[in-house]
Design brief:
Blueprint (H helix, E strand, L loop, with lengths): L1 H13 L3 E7 L4 E9 L10 E3 L3 H9 L3 E3 L10 E2 L2 E2 L2 E9 L2 E10 L7 H31 L2 H21 L3 E5 L5 E4 L1 H7 L3 H4 L13 H14 L1 E9 L5 E13 L2 E10 L1 H23 L3 E5 L5 E4 L1 H7 L9 H8 L3 H17 L8 E6 L5 E10 L5 E7 L1 H47 L7 H24 L7 E4 L1 H15 L3 E7 L5 E5 H19 L3 E12 L1 H4 L7 E10 L6 H4 L19 H11 L3 E6 L5 E10 L19 E5 L3 H13 L3 E5 L2 H10 L6 E5 L7 H11 L5 E5 L6 H7 L4 E4 L4 H15 L1
Parallel strand pairs: 20-22, 26-27, 26-28, 28-29, 29-30
Antiparallel strand pairs: 1-2, 1-8, 2-3, 4-7, 5-6, 7-8, 9-10, 9-13, 11-12, 12-13, 14-15, 14-18, 16-17, 17-18, 19-21, 21-25, 22-23, 23-25, 24-25
Length: about 775
């Protein structure tokens, strides 16, 4: 019958020791319809097995292939004579989802059934199912028509379908002899390799493999013959020379008593190409994340770190081995249990409330391996597989720069206001100082009021010093810029301070060959004294003050945050043993009017003024401090290549003159008092209340005017514009600039364009007389 032929052919084709076919008769049992081999003689035609019992019954119940290497470990144990079944394979035969039969294979040999046998038999099971269904159909037709011819035809079709099984398999199947010569090849093999059936028969199988794999393939055949089963990969070669990737399953079978090798070859080119594409994408991802200036980590859904890039290690200092899990990461990054709990809670809440691939940015302060605290911008993202992709951006430096920028903007705004106030205040002081000077010229030193006039002049000087601090804070504190030796200024200022504060021990370590700096000496002395006083107040009694100078070269990386050009600098460091400052206080110490000393011990302008003066010299000032560990101020001033200039000594006595002066100022109080001072000194005075009026007068009296005293700040036409137009009229015009502002800014530009001098308001009669005479005598 058909079932007997199926069983016999399967046994003969594959060399199994016994083959049984049991059909489901829809009565809850499996009935033996045909058996072939050593172990089937214990059964009879009437044998049946309950569905669900033993390997065969379990295969029928679950619809899944059952396979075992030792039947003695299975409740369904089969013994035949003196032989024992060593391995059993039960294959369900299904029509759609319904199991209609079970094909049971048994082996007494040393080789056990494996997944390759299961794959082959599963492929054959579909054809057997068709044959069984056709057989049943034949039976029904036979019963209805009782026609033998129809029965024979149905059986013939079933037999033909069974013969087509070998050719209908989707993989290339080759049957080889022990020398590797092809005995049979299915239709798929012919189509895949591009040969006709007769061209393949008798051909050595290794000729269908790339030359690099010839020896490997021959070893593969020997290994399969020895072990009975094998699995490997190779590269196939078609008749036209094209190649493709293959996966080769080999198994030993017996046909008509002879050993044969069945090779099932599957084209895996698409899979290989996909694997290569995936590998390339992984390489691209690896390169990308390694080049990013951001830390990257992937945390598995089990909480373990699967990957971290090199930037992650740069930021935190930890390797993956040191922090293998997210739990360990939180423990090291947040040593404070309270902050750790807050961070973990925020992480979990964000994760639970966010969608897949939704970024969850957060900023935390974390502790790096070197115990430094860093501000990190975290951007975790949940991936589809449940893993967490996390980006880490170290924003510590950026936030410091932003803080410095905000401070600079704030100071610039306040500085502009302070500069304006200082300018107007200096004009008022000029008017007062001028009148006092006139009164003192006419008063006798024995006069009872002379002492009061002298006192008022001293108060004016104190007020002028205050405006200098305001202008210094406003980054406008340079008056007379000269090349100087910073060591001499440090020595003289610290010695003077030490004489007044003998309870402070001063240590000096000054580099001998210190570079020259171009500075306003009086302003830098003011900075030094402000820092000394600040240190003294921080030490509250006995203490030590360390002063050090040295030549340094700063790179752009260091100077860029301060908006200063890199190069050579002279560094002055001042360290005290005082109470120190916390970070919050350090952020405010250069703010104007900020003080921690109370109203009676300071105005809060000392450090703000020092900051403005150093910045006006294109320098850097910074501070390092910790509570209880003292404070260090570092000052960097640009080095100069010029030689140090010797100071000129002036006679304090007023110097008289007789030349003609054009006085230009928009302030009536200044015009009035300066005119009288100049006339007292013997000069002829012409007055102009604006730049426009000054040009008209100068054009008219050009040959008579010896010097122009020009105010820098005027409405409509500024002092700078007026100076330019005066130069147009007469390139040799002699001009003395005068302003309530300092020499910075436009004044410096005008001086470089040929202006003859600058005089800071307020000035007294003697100062004005010396300045005019120095310029006039120098230009004659």
């Amino acid at each position: 019958t058909l079932f007997e032929k199926v069983v016999k052919n399967v046994r003969d084709a594959f060399g199994y020791d016994s083959v049984m076919l049991l059909l489901d008769e829809e009565d809850g049992r499996l009935n033996l319809r045909s058996g072939e081999g050593d172990n089937t003689n214990i059964f009879n035609k009437g044998m049946s097995l309950p569905i669900g019992e033993g390997m065969i019954g379990h295969a029928a119940k679950t619809g899944e292939i059952q396979i075992t290497g030792d039947v003695s470990k299975n409740p369904h144990y089969v013994r035949s004579g003196n032989k024992e079944t060593k391995s059993e394979l039960s294959v369900p035969i299904k029509s759609g989802r319904r199991v209609i039969a079970v094909l049971d294979l048994q082996s007494n040999g040393e080789n056990s059934f494996d997944e390759i046998d299961a794959m082959v038999m599963e492929t054959l099971s579909d054809q057997i199912a068709v044959a069984i269904e056709n057989a049943r159909l034949y039976k029904e037709i036979q019963q209805e028509l009782a026609g033998r011819k129809r029965t024979e035809k149905a059986l013939l079709e079933s037999e033909e379908q069974y013969r087509d099984i070998f050719n209908s398999v989707g993989d290339s199947l080759f049957l080889l002899d022990l020398q590797g010569k092809i005995i049979a090849a299915n239709k798929t093999a012919c189509e895949t390799y591009g040969y006709k059936q007769e061209e393949l028969i008798g051909r050595l199988a290794h000729t269908l493999v790339h030359s690099h794999y010839h020896r490997i393939f021959q070893s593969f055949i020997k290994y399969t013959m020895k072990k009975g089963r094998s699995l490997g990969e190779s590269i196939g070669v078609r008749q036209d020379g094209s190649t493709f990737y293959t996966e080769v399953h080999g198994s030993v079978t017996r046909i008509k008593g002879e050993s044969r090798l069945l090779a099932a070859i599957r084209d895996i080119t698409d899979r290989k190409q996909a694997e290569k594409a995936l590998h390339r994408e992984k390489e691209k991802f690896q390169v990308m994340v390694e080049e990013l200036p951001l830390g990257i980590s992937i945390i598995g859904k089990d909480g373990r770190l699967q990957y971290i890039n090199s930037k992650f290690i740069d930021i935190f200092g930890y390797t993956k081995e040191e922090i293998p899990t997210g739990k360990m990461w939180f423990k090291t990054a947040f040593p404070d249990p309270i902050k750790r709990k807050q961070a973990i809670t925020a992480w979990i809440e964000d994760k639970n409330n966010a969608e897949t691939w939704e970024a969850r940015p957060k900023i935390f302060k974390v502790m790096a391996k070197d115990k430094t605290e860093k501000r990190i911008h975290f951007i975790p993202v949940s991936m589809e597989n449940g893993d967490q992709f996390v980006i880490y951006e170290d924003i510590t430096k950026r936030q410091k720069l932003e803080t410095k920028l905000q401070q600079a903007q704030k100071l610039e705004a306040i500085g502009t206001l302070a500069g304006g106030i200082a300018h107007d205040f200096n004009n008022l002081l000029m008017a007062i100082q001028g009148r006092i000077s006139l009164m003192m010229v006419k008063a006798d030193s024995t006069d009872s009021n002379y002492r009061h006039l002298k006192g008022i002049e001293d108060y004016i000087k104190s007020a002028s010093d205050l405006t200098k601090q305001l202008l210094g804070f406003a980054r406008g504190g340079k008056y007379e810029v000269k090349n100087a030796n910073l060591n001499l200024i440090i020595l003289s200022s610290s010695e003077m301070f030490g004489r007044t504060k003998k309870e402070i021990t001063i240590h000096r370590n000054l580099q001998e060959d210190i570079w020259t700096v171009k500075i306003d000496r009086s302003q830098i002395e003011q900075v030094c004294l402000n820092l000394y006083v600040n240190a003294w107040q921080a030490m509250s009694g006995n203490g030590e003050l360390y002063l050090q100078s040295e030549n340094v070269t700063l790179t752009e990386a260091y100077t860029k945050p301060y908006e200063v050009s890199p190069g050579r600098f002279v560094k002055f460091s001042l360290t005290d043993t005082g109470v120190g400052m916390d970070e919050e206080t350090q952020q405010k110490i250069f703010d104007p009017f900020f003080t921690t000393k109370g109203m009676r011990r300071g105005t809060g302008l000392g450090l703000a003024s020092a900051y403005g003066i150093i910045r006006s010299h294109n320098g850097i000032i910074n501070v390092y401090s910790s509570p209880g560990e003292g404070t260090t101020f570092n000052i960097y001033l640009p080095a100069s290549d010029d030689r140090i200039e010797e100071d000129k000594i002036y006679n304090k006595k007023a110097l008289m003159g007789s030349e003609t002066v054009l006085l230009v100022d928009d302030e009536e109080i200044i015009i009035e008092v300066d005119r009288e001072i100049l006339e007292t000194l013997g000069y002829r005075v012409l007055l102009a209340n604006s730049g426009k009026e000054a040009l008209e007068i100068y054009t008219k009296y050009r040959d008579e005017i010896d010097i122009v005293i020009l105010d820098l700040i005027m409405p409509e036409m500024s002092g700078s514009e007026t100076f330019n137009k005066l130069k147009d009229i007469n390139p040799d015009v002699v001009v003395l600039l005068s302003s309530g502002y300092s020499i910075n800014g436009n004044a410096t530009k005008i001086l470089k364009r040929g202006c003859n001098g600058f005089l800071q308001k307020p000035f007294n009669l003697e100062q004005l007389s010396r300045k005019i005479r120095a310029i006039l005598d120098d230009t004659k």
